[in-house]
Specification:
Radius of gyration: 26 Å
CATH class of the largest domain: Mainly Beta
Distance between the termini: 54 Å
Largest sheet: 7 strands, antiparallel
Strand content: 35-45%
Number of helices: 3
Number of domains: 2
């Protein structure tokens, strides 16, 4: 199906979805595709003065890093449902142009900033890492072009941002005569100043990975008013010889800033340490707080994240979103490190500003693919006429997705939410019905092929010895669900549909969100049939694995279906403790709803 767009070129329409396509809007397959040549990365959108969306991205006919990689634009007049033909910003037959980031000026001009292989190098020489020898898309000059007609045409000339050398440059393969760098995210305008973050690269390793990098920023104080692009002035930040670094590892990639209400800056960046980092600047980016991992609240629990993009975005209501992957980093498979994996699902936390700091909510799943090997990354968040959207890429497909506004409002209001959610509540019992060896009629739970369920309870343990049974709804064949204690001092949910089995327990240990002795605790276990994931929320805190394990959540078999077992469940046949409430929901609860149930008491 084709029609003509406003540029007189064929419009690419999203393929019709088969009837079997999941209705879950979090499934990336339900999104609208963005046009590309083959490889595609970093699809970032600005809304131009004519009300259209202008998306710029890095693309090429081959795979990432191959010759012919260049930057393009495409335009949508219907909030990302359909797009114009691709418009070259830099041509495919020129030197590599990559990692394009757009910014729109108050008067309507659109600038794009990108890494440009200015000297058309064909090989990185002097390296003992052959796999990077032919890859020349992270070196050269930081360049920019502009468009004064909402992205339809671009300046013939390009302009170069001068960058002073830092230690990491002087110690690279070329002693600073060639610079290695790349940027992600989008520039921000605050109080007339433009900022964007990027990474300087110092050393490379096998297999073609960057083994030393630092976070830096470029700032212009006159770009919003100066119409002559050759007169735009630039500063490389932070001051001094070192950029932003991780507390432990040598990798600090992909710095991404936002502005706070008082003009302070907050930036996140990725590491290889199992956590992302965050820093504040109170002087326009010249200096930053000491190297530290990001936390949900000042001085609170660390945010777990692998070596992947973690983006922070500020919206018109003054609230923030953080995109990350909510687990503890790199894994080893067959004796080799698996870099850049486990970017599925994508999680988001909502941020609110308090006394000059961002306080983050517990996270929700934003997007997923049923294939765990699919990677979802390099997002952009778009706010347009009261609606919220996100773009993402798996390197070969880029898509647009609308975000349910209630998901965001739940995150932003999570800390104040004291509402007991009743939608989907199919069973509720108080303490008088939860005495040892009591029975209760089990509600019919949805098939995990199309739905999910949630078990919510208040419990107080006298001890956490293994073998206790809080709930058992299995039949004689073992089909059904059960909630028991383990030898790790945890609670475990067991599932069986008669053919498939799964089990997952809450976090062990004594960190926030784990079990305690002698105090009432609110425990929620969520079985989400969309991404096929089990999560635990204890006292309003989503389990993330802590120091004991990489993941706090777990997938169950995608083929698992009906887990209804016995018609009646046994309650506390063996429990050293007591229950005072138990609820079943015939749907997955959001993390924000589970936290609200906790605060409702």
């Amino acid at each position: 199906m084709r029609r003509r767009d406003f540029l007189g070129s064929p419009v690419l329409l999203p393929a019709l979805q088969a009837q079997s396509t999941p209705a879950d809007a979090r499934d990336i397959r339900t999104g609208s595709p963005i046009p590309k040549e083959g490889y595609c990365d970093q699809p970032y959108v600005v809304i131009t003065k004519d009300g259209n969306w202008l998306c710029v991205l890095t693309t090429g006919s081959g795979v990432e890093g191959e010759p012919g990689q260049h930057i393009v634009a495409t335009i949508s007049s219907d909030q990302g449902k359909t797009w114009s033909r691709l418009i070259d910003i830099e041509p495919a037959n020129g030197p590599e142009a990559s990692w394009v980031m757009p910014a729109i000026m108050p008067y309507g001009r659109v600038y794009v900033f990108y890494t440009y292989n200015r000297d058309n190098l064909r090989e990185v020489t002097g390296s003992n890492t052959p796999s990077i020898g032919k890859r020349v898309d992270t070196l050269g000059a930081y360049c920019y072009k502009y468009s004064d007609d909402n992205g339809r045409t671009w300046s013939k000339g390009r302009y170069e941002i001068p960058m002073r050398l830092m230690r990491i440059d002087r110690e690279n393969l070329y002693q600073g005569k060639v610079l290695f760098f790349w940027g992600v995210g989008k520039p921000i305008l605050d109080r007339g100043r433009l900022y964007f973050g990027f990474a300087k690269v110092g050393k490379w390793g096998n297999p073609g990975t960057m083994v030393e990098s630092q976070g830096c920023f470029l700032r212009s104080d006159n770009i919003a008013t100066e119409r002559d692009p050759s007169k735009v002035q630039w500063q490389l930040l932070p001051d001094g010889d070192e950029g932003l670094r991780a507390p432990k590892g040598p990798v600090s990639d992909e710095a991404n800033p936002v502005a706070l209400s008082d003009g302070s800056l907050y930036a996140t960046y990725r590491t290889i340490d199992g956590y992302n980092c965050a820093a504040y600047s109170r002087d326009g980016g010249r200096t930053w707080t000491p190297s530290a991992y990001a936390t949900y609240t000042p001085g609170g629990r660390r945010i777990k994240h692998p070596r992947a993009a973690n983006f922070v975005k500020k919206f018109s209501n003054g609230r923030f979103l953080l995109w990350y992957h909510n687990h503890g980093g790199e894994t080893v498979h067959n004796g080799r490190w698996q870099y850049y994996q486990d970017r599925n699902p994508a999680w988001i936390a909502g941020g609110v500003e308090k006394n000059g700091f961002i306080h983050w909510s517990q996270p929700e799943i934003l997007l997923y693919d049923l294939d765990p090997k699919v990677r979802i990354s390099y997002p952009d968040f778009i706010e347009d006429r009261g609606r919220f959207f996100v773009t993402e890429t798996q390197k070969t497909i880029a898509r647009v997705h609308e975000i349910d506004r209630t998901l965001l409002e739940g995150l932003w209001g999570q800390h104040e939410n004291r509402t007991l959610t009743r939608r989907g509540l199919v069973l509720e019992r108080g303490a008088s019905h939860l005495t040892p060896n009591a029975t209760l009629d089990m509600p019919r739970l949805p098939s995990l092929q199309s739905g999910g369920f949630t078990l919510d309870l208040w419990i107080r343990f006298k001890e956490l010895s293994p073998g206790q049974t809080i709930l058992d709804a299995r039949d004689a064949s073992g089909k059904g669900i059960a909630l028991t204690t383990t030898d790790r001092f945890t609670l475990q949910l067991s599932l069986s549909d008669g053919a498939q089995k799964a089990e997952w327990d809450c976090d062990p240990g004594t960190h926030e969100g784990t079990l305690r002795i002698g105090q009432w605790q609110h425990v929620v276990v969520i079985v989400d049939g969309g991404p096929k994931i089990i999560t635990w929320v204890i006292d309003g805190v989503l389990n993330d694995g802590g120091a004991a394990r990489q993941f706090g959540w777990s997938r169950f078999p995608s083929a698992m279906g009906d887990v209804n077992g016995a018609a009646q469940a046994r309650v506390a046949p063996v429990l050293f403790g007591e229950l005072k409430s138990l609820r079943f929901y015939d749907r997955y609860l959001r993390t924000s709803e589970a936290a609200g149930n906790y605060r409702a008491g």
